[in-house]
């Protein structure tokens, strides 16, 4: 068992949002990091904007890389470790793809050989620049890059699951080349678990990279269906942690809740603290959790235009760096954290995705059965139908009872 769960936050600069890379101000960054460290958190996830760092396929701007290193060093001075997402990619409803992949140079970002080699060199370069920093956790290939591979994206780069796997392996290898021995991973939004035609699969998330990342957002139909205080809503992050274990080959593979937040208006501001408390409590009742990283650190400034309304208020801190109720709640949880040793979950819900992954989505048979079992206090995990009779696999995970969704009654 790990001795503790890591608690951190996705760093959203208070001045200029991620456009701060265009007018990088280390003093402003330091002030932001001071306010994050004051919450007692131990790491941040950082987002270079890909077009700003690699505006041409063969130009990775040295000054931008130096600024990234300066940010990481400033974080170290405040006791904060750093994970870096390379390919941004997609953030808060905006796409950031370099011009050399678009319009007149339109090429598939997952399969075009020259594009993929450009991406690999970019990730290798960022990783190498930070490889000797003790506070560098490692690279995430990019933020929810799977959203570029299928609908509802308006202009997706269509690929097969086999092509998605090949792309992930190539870029994970580039990260490891740049920074051997660090933790390198990839991150998909929940379509990987829920969407039938999404080419990035649960197997990719649960088997490739040094740990599994899950991103938990209850605006995906969960809160709409179950309400703010519904079991499925408050345990959505825990559900994704346990769902991921069905596909993992390593029964002790670490899982990182890399994004989770309290989105208004489904979670109103006055309820954000309670949602935070319930969500973290659910996650801490799962085994093999590496960490919880809240989205996000600071609110988006209202003078920035065209964000979806919910994006402006997701911070643990206000735009002027003052802690909000959810931030104070998370700080208290960190301060009061007990030794992390949750009991093994001995009841496994069978996951059969033969009809499609949507059985795992809100409203699907697996999702709803898991919520009912959780509400009844059963503390379920999940197991693939193909492994439900594998005594060796079940024993390795401590599973003693297996149930199917249709056995779970109202």
Automatic annotation (TrEMBL):
InterPro entries assigned to the protein according to its UniProt record, in alphabetical order: GH
Gene3D superfamilies tied to this protein: Glycosidases
Name this protein carries in UniProt: Glycosyl hydrolase
């Amino acid at each position: 068992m790990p001795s503790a769960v890591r608690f951190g936050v996705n760093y959203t600069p208070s001045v200029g949002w991620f456009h701060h890379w265009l007018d990088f101000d280390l003093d402003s960054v330091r002030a932001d990091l001071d306010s994050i460290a004051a919450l007692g958190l131990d790491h941040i996830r950082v987002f270079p904007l890909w077009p700003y760092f690699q505006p041409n396929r063969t130009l990775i701007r040295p000054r931008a890389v130096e600024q990234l290193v300066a940010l990481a060093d400033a974080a170290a001075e405040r006791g904060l470790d750093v994970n870096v997402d390379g390919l941004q990619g997609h953030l808060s409803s905006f796409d950031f793809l370099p011009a050399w992949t678009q319009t007149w140079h339109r090429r598939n970002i997952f399969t075009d050989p020259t594009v993929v080699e450009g991406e690999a060199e970019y990730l290798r370069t960022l990783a190498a620049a930070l490889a000797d920093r003790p506070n560098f956790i490692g690279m995430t290939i990019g933020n929810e890059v799977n959203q570029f591979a299928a609908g509802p994206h308006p202009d997706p780069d269509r690929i097969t699951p086999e092509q998605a796997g090949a792309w992930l392996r190539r870029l994970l290898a580039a990260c490891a080349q740049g920074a051997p021995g660090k933790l390198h991973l990839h991150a998909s939004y929940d379509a990987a678990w829920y969407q039938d035609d999404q080419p990035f699969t649960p197997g990719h998330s649960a088997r490739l990279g040094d740990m599994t990342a899950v991103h938990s957002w209850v605006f995906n139909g969960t809160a709409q269906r179950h309400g703010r205080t519904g079991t499925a809503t408050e345990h959505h992050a825990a559900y994704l942690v346990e769902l991921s274990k069905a596909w993992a080959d390593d029964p002790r593979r670490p899982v990182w809740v890399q994004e989770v937040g309290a989105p208004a208006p489904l979670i109103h501001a006055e309820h954000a603290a309670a949602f935070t408390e319930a969500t973290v409590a659910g996650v801490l009742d799962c085994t093999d959790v590496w960490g919880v990283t809240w989205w996000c650190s600071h609110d988006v400034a209202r003078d920035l235009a065209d964000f979806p309304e919910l994006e402006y208020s997701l911070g643990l801190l206000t735009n002027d760096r003052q802690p909000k109720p959810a931030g104070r709640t998370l700080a208290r949880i960190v301060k009061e954290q007990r030794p992390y040793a949750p009991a093994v979950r001995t009841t496994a819900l069978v996951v059969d995705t033969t009809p499609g992954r949507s059985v795992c989505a809100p409203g699907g048979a697996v999702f709803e059965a898991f919520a009912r079992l959780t509400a009844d206090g059963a503390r379920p995990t999940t197991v693939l139908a193909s492994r439900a009779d594998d005594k060796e696999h079940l024993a390795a995970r401590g599973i003693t009872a297996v149930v199917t969704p249709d056995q779970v009654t109202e």
